[in-house]
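ok so for the tutorial part 2 we go from a plain amino acid sequence to predicted structure tokens. step 1 is just haveing the sequence, like this:
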Amino acid sequence: MKVALIGNKGFDTIEYHTADALKHLGHHVYHVDMSDQIDIKYLYNYWFSKFIPHYVEYLFNNLAKKIISYEPDLVIGTYRFIPIVTIQKIKAALNGIPIVQLNPDALTTFEKQQIFYSPYDFFFTKDPYIVDFMKKKASLNAHYLPEAFNQRVHKMPKKSRTDLERDINIDVLAFGSIYPYRARLLKKLISVGLRPTIFGDNQTKDQELKEFFKNEWITGDRKSEVLVGAKIVFNNFHYAEIDSVNCKFFEIAGAGGFQICDWKPTINEYSAIDSSCFTFGCIDQAIEHINYYINKPALRYEMATLQREHFLLNHTYDVRVKQMLDIVYKC
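step 2 — the prediction. this is what the tokens look like for a chain of 331 residues:
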């Protein structure tokens, strides 16, 4: 099958992993991005598209022409800011092929709410709360599809856990975009004597956190090495995750890391281990979990191995893409 995928081509993005899974399952993928229309950085394209209407119309008009010329059997869009007219043009020109909106993020990312008025045939999103709203209030053909991990990218390092833990030498790891909410929770850990190691972007520019940053953004093999080598990964979700979890939840478990994360009602659905063992409802409970597990390597390894085996069977992008295609084609 020929699939056109609209979205970011960056490595370790949901679009990258979705394209990889589609190819692995035997499909042909035509991946188109804003940067294919004008050769400038994604971030510049993104901000220009938010504030210059004619710019976004130009970009996506060219993008629509390329997709129509490709004559795909399926179109998947992940951007939430694709103009309504772009989807209308593609739909009219391709005459009945399914067009899917795959929304991998929390409800604060709906831009100007274009997707609610665009003529997509299917909507896939990870939060049961959003699915319920889309189906019951907006009468959209919405379906629940959690995030996932890519076992060909987020893979278990070859070193033993004990050797890796010794070499990485991190008690508590945090990574990603450290916006103010995450930073505040990390400062609470520091206040009780824990010393987190932070990979990613200090968006708060907080000087108290500066000494804990490694000034490195981790992806690929390096990400897996750090996730598995750290004793505990502290994964506090964005506050806009209502009933859902972030992609890091799946990446950490899939690679073989051990995490302490926010409690969400969906976690027992995903997990091979009871969520009460590794989730927290308040920051004091997170600290209690960290102090309990920090010096119990055998227990951490046992739990992490069990989770990894379960996630390999149930939560890869290959599994998610099959689930999506089964719904679209009612297999």
